[in-house]
Design goal:
This protein has 556 residues and is of the alpha/beta class. It is 34% helix and 22% strand.
Length: 556
């Protein structure tokens, strides 16, 4: 029987519950336990697939095709495991299941209520992964903030599980915020006390309190929090700000978060944590030997979480190459033929980001043209690959009306067209080509050099595809279709011959990049930008960027 850890948040949102949950999971995994994490979100959407990235950040896609919360990306990157449909549950999915059962007559005419029907379904899903026999410990992150009206059914479900299961089978961790008042020059614990009080009023008493703070917590402050929140002083954990999220597991190790959890679960005889690879990764990350500047061409740049997996994939790839990757945000809406050279000046590489819709696509096409004509290392993902195809058709093949039917449904030259199986679909949620698919790689191609294999699998999230009617013309002109789905013939990878590094992929390689297994295209792309940087005189690269590794600079 698995043990269950629940992570809740208080005082404010965006405290990093996902990072704390992933860090704890990493430590437990490093001690030899089989661990998984799941996210329960309180919003009524069935999944985040229909949400604007400005609303909720990126939509993370699992191997089995689930559109999920971006926190599942953190779980996979930290633990080097695959998550699934079962790892992300929303209020909408809970209610949908219960309503469907009611329509089928499963409740025998009884009045369907939040308690017990909704809470029973929540509990079933909370325990689903723990009953498979595959895991020793299941960590459940509860989205939102304690006190939110929509979170109440989840808190009630936790209360019931605490009552139903043996005491040593559940642990509740409450992540809270300790604000620092500059005027008073002191940290304030009252918001935490109120947050714990609200949680306790719902019948759930936290076993551990993790305190996000900008300043170190003194023993006196820890004792005060412990006293008024009714936990042991050792169970008050300091979670100070770190220079990178990948330092958080080591910070939690120093605070003995994992030990306290294991003690509460009455687990003994555990191993010392094996974190050799993790520490080696951090050493390379913190002490790079060189720096490159890569332009991220997108339209959701105001919210860095919109491209979270891409940014993290660059962190992994940079560490492998012992290189600091500085991401320079370039808003595609503001790129024109007249200013493209200025906008992209000083960059060592260009990544055109995925997305949907008409806004900003012409700027992306202009950026691709600049990279192609100037030998600038280029990497296009999903829509980025499609824009590369359109640019090539327009400016090399001379097909001036080349376009995507997504942007112009009446285009006479649909180089990018809606997939045949998508043409009869009217519903938006969960209906794209989603999840992992096989791709056959052409031997001798750049893609083959990158992957070192003739067959790979990558994750997808799209409705439009490259129109195979144009393949012959493309390949005659030097744009090679180097990766195809063997079942459908869908073009998955295009690359440009006689270019230092020019590749576009229909899939989303960033979704499978982890600390222990950095994604190969990102690794090789960073390597190509390093070579380009060394080949260009310093004077031509502009002034060195004065931003840290994960700092984003808006150039628009």
């Amino acid at each position: 029987m698995a043990k269950y850890v629940f992570v809740t948040g208080g005082v404010t949102s965006s405290l990093g519950k996902g990072i704390i949950a992933a860090s704890l999971a990493k430590l437990l995994q490093a001690r030899g336990f089989r661990v998984t994490i799941q996210k329960f979100d309180p919003y009524i959407n069935i999944d985040p697939g229909t949400l604007n990235p400005y609303e909720h950040g990126e939509c993370f896609v699992t191997e089995d095709g689930a559109e999920t919360d971006l926190d599942l990306g953190h779980y996979e990157r930290f633990l080097n495991i695959f998550t699934s449909q079962a790892n992300n549950v929303t209020t909408g999915r809970i209610y949908q299941t219960v309503i469907n059962k009611e329509r089928e007559g499963a409740y025998l005419g009884k009045t369907v209520q939040v308690v017990p029907h909704i809470t029973n379904e929540i509990k079933r899903r909370m325990m689903e992964l723990g009953t498979t026999g595959e895991y020793d410990i299941v960590i459940t992150e509860i989205g939102g903030t304690i006190g939110d009206i929509e979170s109440l059914p989840f808190v009630e479900a936790i209360r019931q599980l605490q009552w139903e299961l043996p005491e040593e089978d559940t642990v509740v961790i409450h992540l809270t915020y300790i604000p620092y008042l500059k005027a008073a020059k002191e940290l304030k614990t009252k918001p935490t006390q109120h947050s714990v009080k609200m949680l306790s009023q719902e019948g759930v008493s936290p076993d551990i309190i993790v305190c996000r703070t900008e300043k170190p917590l003194t023993p006196e402050l820890k004792r005060k929090i412990a006293l008024f929140c009714n936990v042991k002083q050792e169970a008050v954990i300091e979670a100070a700000d770190q220079s990178t999220i990948y330092e958080v597991p080591l910070a939690m190790l120093r605070e003995k978060l994992d030990i306290i959890c294991l003690k509460k679960m009455n687990i003994s005889g555990y191993n010392e944590p094996e974190l050799t690879k993790w520490r080696a990764f951090l050493d390379k990350l913190k002490y790079p030997k060189t720096v490159v500047r890569i332009g991220l061409i997108g339209k959701y740049l105001e919210l860095q979480d919109a491209y979270k997996s891409i940014l993290e994939a660059f962190v992994h790839a940079g560490a492998v190459n012992e290189c600091q990757v500085q991401i320079i945000n370039v808003h595609s809406e503001y790129i024109t033929d007249e200013n493209v050279a200025e906008k992209l000046d000083g960059l060592n590489g260009l990544l055109v980001a995925p997305g949907f819709g008409l806004r900003g696509v012409e700027g992306k096409i202009t950026a691709v043209k600049y990279a192609r004509e100037n030998g600038l290392p280029f990497f296009g993902i999903c829509l980025g690959m499609q824009m590369a195809a359109i640019e090539f058709a327009r400016n090399v093949l001379g097909i001036k009306e080349a376009n995507s039917t997504e942007m112009d449904e009446n285009t006479k030259e649909p180089v990018i067209d809606l997939m045949e199986e998508q043409k009869l679909i009217t519903e938006k949620g969960g209906t794209m080509r989603l999840g992992s698919y096989t791709c056959a790689i052409k031997p001798g191609s750049l893609a083959y050099t990158i992957y070192g294999a003739e067959t790979i699998t990558e994750r997808h999230r799209h409705r439009w595809e490259f129109n195979n009617k144009y393949i012959e013309a493309f390949e005659k002109a030097g744009m090679i279709a180097s990766g195809k789905n063997p079942a459908s013939g869908l073009v998955e990878v295009i690359e440009l011959a006689h270019h230092p590094f020019f590749i576009g992929v229909q899939y989303h390689p960033e979704l499978k990049s982890t600390v222990e297994n950095p994604q190969p295209i990102f690794v090789n792309f960073v390597k190509a930008t390093m070579a380009y940087s060394n080949s260009v005189p310093d004077s031509a690269q502009g002034e060195p960027a004065k931003v840290s590794q994960q700092t984003q600079k808006h150039m628009a």
